[in-house]
C-alpha cells in the first residue's frame, strides 16, 4: 500500500457529531478497509523505534541500542528516576517513531514504511480533516502531526491533558492497530474525571480511531508484565495554524 488509505465507507461525521459532543470523545471501530489496516499494522511492527521517556522532569529520545549498552548502574538510576516520577507526577516510557518530523522534512523512505507515510497523507487530506471538522463543528482543524508508538510490558503514560503552550492542539487522535488484546493487559486509554475516577477507558484494539478534545485529562495505563502482545498505535494531534 503506497497510496493513502481511505476512511471506511459509510462513516457519517454529521450523524456522529452528537455522540462526540456528549463527552468530547469518540471511539470509531473499523476505520480503514481490513487490507489497509493489515498493511499499516505490518509497517508498525517494522518501524525503527527509539525509546521515548521522561526522567527527572526531562524528555529523552534514546536509541534502543544505546539503552541496551548502558552500564547497569546508569540504567538502574534511570529506572529509579522513572519509577519515582510515575509515582508522583507526569511520566512516560514507550517506543516511538516520529513520522511527521520525517514527512515534514520530505524524508520518505517508502518500502515497508510506505503504509505509515500513506496514513500521514490521509491525516493531512481534505477527506480526513473535513471529516474531523464536521464531527467536531470546528473549522480551525488545519493539519495533523503523527508518531508511531509501541508500548511493551511495563510501558505507560501518566495523566496529562495534551495542552502544550504554542502547539495549537485542538483534538487528539489515536489510531489503534493492536490485533488481539485483553483489558486485563492494561495499556488502556483512560479518561479521568474531576473526582479522580476513570470516567471511561478504551481498550487497545485493531483498526479503530479514538478522537478526543484537548484539553482533557487522560492516561495510558501501564501495560501489564504478563501482557501477551505489544500495543501499536499511530497517534498525534489535529492542530490549528
Ligand atoms: O496512545 C494513546 O492511547 C494515547 C497517547 C497520548 O495520550 C499521548 O501521546 O499524549
Ligand atoms: Fe495524551
From TrEMBL:
GO cellular component term, pick one: cytoplasm
Keyword vocabulary terms for this entry: Dioxygenase, Iron, Metal-binding, Oxidoreductase, Vitamin C
Cofactor(s) listed in the protein's UniProt record: L-ascorbate
Keyword Metal-binding found: yes
Keyword S-adenosyl-L-methionine: no
Species annotation: Phenylobacterium glaciei
GO biological process terms on file: regulation of translational termination
A GO MF label: L-ascorbic acid binding
UniProt-listed Gene3D superfamilies: q2cbj1_9rhob like domain (2.60.120.620)
Pfam families per record: 2OG-FeII_Oxy_4
InterPro entries referenced in this protein's UniProt entry, alphabetically: Oxoglu/Fe-dep_dioxygenase_dom, Pro_4_hyd_alph, TPA1/OFD1_N, uS12_prolyl_hydroxylase
Name of protein: 2OG-Fe(II) oxygenase
Domain Fe2OG dioxygenase, chain residue ranges per copy: 142-240
Amino acid at each position: 500500500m503506497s497510496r493513502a488509505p481511505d476512511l471506511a465507507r459509510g462513516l457519517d461525521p454529521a450523524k456522529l457529531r452528537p455522540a462526540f459532543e456528549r463527552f468530547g470523545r469518540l471511539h470509531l471501530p473499523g476505520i480503514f478497509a481490513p487490507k489497509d489496516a493489515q498493511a499499516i499494522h505490518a509497517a508498525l511492527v517494522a518501524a525503527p523505534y527509539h525509546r521515548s521517556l521522561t526522567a527527572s522532569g526531562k524528555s529523552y529520545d534514546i536509541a534502543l541500542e544505546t539503552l541496551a549498552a548502558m552500564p547497569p548502574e546508569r540504567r538502574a538510576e534511570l529506572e529509579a528516576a522513572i519509577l519515582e516520577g510515575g509515582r508522583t507526577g507526569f511520566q512516560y516510557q514507550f517506543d516511538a517513531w516520529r513520522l511527521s518530523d520525517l514527512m515534514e522534512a520530505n524524508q520518505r523512505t517508502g518500502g515497508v514504511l510506505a503504509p505509515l507515510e500513506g496514513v500521514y497523507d490521509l491525516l493531512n487530506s481534505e477527506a480526513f480533516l473535513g471529516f474531523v471538522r464536521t464531527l467536531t463543528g470546528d473549522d480551525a482543524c488545519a493539519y495533523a502531526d503523527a508518531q508511531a508508538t509501541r508500548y511493551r510490558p511495563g510501558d505507560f503514560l501518566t495523566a496529562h491533558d495534551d495542552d502544550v503552550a504554542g502547539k495549537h492542539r485542538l483534538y487528539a487522535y489515536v489510531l489503534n492497530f493492536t490485533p488481539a488484546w485483553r483489558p486485563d493487559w492494561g495499556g488502556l486509554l483512560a479518561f479521568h474525571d474531576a473526582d479522580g475516577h476513570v470516567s471511561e477507558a478504551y481498550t487497545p484494539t485493531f483498526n479503530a480511531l479514538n478522537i478526543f478534545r484537548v484539553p482533557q485529562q487522560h492516561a495510558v495505563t501501564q501495560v501489564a508484565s504478563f501482557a501477551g502482545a505489544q500495543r501499536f498505535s499511530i497517534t498525534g494531534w489535529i492542530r490549528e495554524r
